[in-house]
Design brief:
Blueprint: E1 12-22, E2 27-41, E3 44-52, E4 56-65, E5 69-75, E6 78-85, E7 88-95, E8 100-108, E9 114-123, E10 126-138, H1 159-162, E11 179-189, E12 195-206, E13 212-217, E14 226-232, E15 236-238, E16 244-251, E17 255-262, E18 267-275, E19 281-290, E20 293-306
Antiparallel strand pairs: 1-2, 1-10, 2-3, 3-4, 4-5, 5-6, 6-7, 7-8, 8-9, 9-10, 11-12, 11-20, 12-13, 13-14, 14-15, 15-16, 16-17, 17-18, 18-19, 19-20
């Protein structure tokens, strides 16, 4: 049986710089995101936040924690989230001030010092914004302001200059960078009541015809290893016909969200992934379905190694 999440990993002060994109993946600008997470009762957290950038928001909301879910009680954020582990939450929320629904995942690293997040903000079914978050824990003892902008974000030009650049000024798609992503992932069963760890690796190769070949060792839900060829215009990726088919959208070259059908395994997987600005780590969340029923989840933090 898996342990009951306590969410102690996320309590404290957090600050960082988020990248904000429109629904077509064009870069709109950075946002300063500051949050203070306090435990105010045995099963309640209060989050005070300030989000300043292309979107603006200031206020607080209360989260009520339960064994396998969290209720967002408002006032600025309401909704429901699944607690997938000690440090990962998968949420569906609503921000009334923006009039936007949110599909969101947040991963807190095991050392409790960093957070990675991906927020898909929609009005109805239309994607309006995507926000990639990368945050650092801020010590209460710090005398001065925290370093909020990682060096890898200090790119030349203005947001308008980079709006038409799918790499957001980096010159490469970090999601498609040739090399190997590897690490231990947490694997949950269909009822989220069993927990295992598993080794995961994914090798990325860029072919002469500019397609991407991804070879993945992932044996918990799918036959392994499996290989898939991705065609891309640098804003989206999609497959030709075959036994593994699907597509995803790319955001700034460092995040993706999309679905793949593994026809032989009779499984569909919804993948969401975020690469750190320095391309050293990638946080992943994969939900596996058979029809409309979920059969499992895997998530974790992978390390990158370039091809020799």
């Amino acid at each position: 049986m898996s342990e009951k999440p306590t969410f102690k990993r996320g309590v404290g002060r957090w600050a960082g710089t988020a990248e904000v994109y429109d629904g077509n993946g064009q870069f709109l600008g950075h946002a300063l995101d500051q949050r203070n997470v306090q435990q105010i009762s045995d099963n309640q957290l209060r989050i005070d936040l300030s989000f300043t950038g292309p979107l603006m928001l200031s206020g607080y909301y209360v989260i009520e924690t339960h064994e396998r879910h969290r209720l967002y009680r408002g006032p600025v954020n309401v909704g429901y989230a699944e607690a997938l582990g000690e440090g990962l939450v998968d949420a569906n929320n609503y921000w009334a001030q923006w009039g936007l629904s949110q599909r969101f995942f947040l991963y807190v690293t095991p050392d409790k010092m960093q957070q990675y997040s991906l927020s898909l903000l929609s009005r109805g079914e239309q994607l309006m914004y995507t926000i990639i978050g990368e945050y650092q824990r801020v010590s209460d003892a710090d005398d001065g302001p925290p370093v909020l902008v990682p060096e890898a974000m200090m790119l030349p030009g203005t947001p308008k200059d980079r709006a038409g650049d799918p790499t957001n000024g980096r010159g490469e798609l970090l999601i498609h960078k040739p090399g190997v992503w590897s690490g231990e992932v947490t694997v949950l069963g269909e009822n989220l009541d069993s927990q295992q760890s598993a080794s995961y690796s994914q090798e990325i190769m860029v072919n002469a015809d500019k397609t991407i070949t991804s070879t993945t060792h992932d044996g918990r839900f799918l036959a392994e290893p499996y290989e898939v060829t991705i065609q891309t215009n640098n804003w989206q990726g999609w497959t030709p016909t075959g036994n593994i088919v699907g597509s995803y959208n790319l955001v700034g070259g460092r995040a993706l969200s999309g679905q793949f059908h593994h026809l032989d395994d009779e499984i569909r997987v919804w993948k969401r992934e975020v690469v750190s600005t320095d391309c050293k780590h990638k946080a992943i969340l994969h939900n596996f379905y058979r029809g409309g029923s979920r059969v499992g989840v895997q998530y974790g933090l992978l390390r990158f190694q370039e091809n020799a």
